[in-house]
Amino acid sequence: MTRKTFDFAVIGAGCFGAWTAHELLRAGHSVALLDAYGAAHSRSSSGGESRIIRMGYGADELYTRWSFESLAKWQALAERVSRRIFHRTGMLWLSGRQDALVPQMLQILARLDVAHEQLTPQELGQRFPQISPVEIECALWEPDAGVLMAREAVQALVADSVAAGIDYRIAQVLSPDPKQRRLASIVTSAGDSISAGCFIFACGAWLPQIFPDLLGPRIFPTRQEVFFFSPPQIGSSFAAPAMPAWYHHPAMVYGVPDIENRGFKISVDKHGPAFDPDTGLRAASADGLEIARAYLMQRFPKLKNAPLSESRVCQYENTSNGDFIIDRHPQIENAVIVGGGSGHGFKHGPAVGAYVRALLTSDATTEPRFALLSKDTTQARSVF
Ligand SMILES: Cc1cc2nc3c(=O)[nH]c(=O)nc-3n(C[C@H](O)[C@H](O)[C@H](O)COP(=O)(O)OP(=O)(O)OC[C@H]3O[C@@H](n4cnc5c(N)ncnc54)[C@H](O)[C@@H]3O)c2cc1C
Question: What is the model's pTM?
Answer without folding.
Answer: 0.98
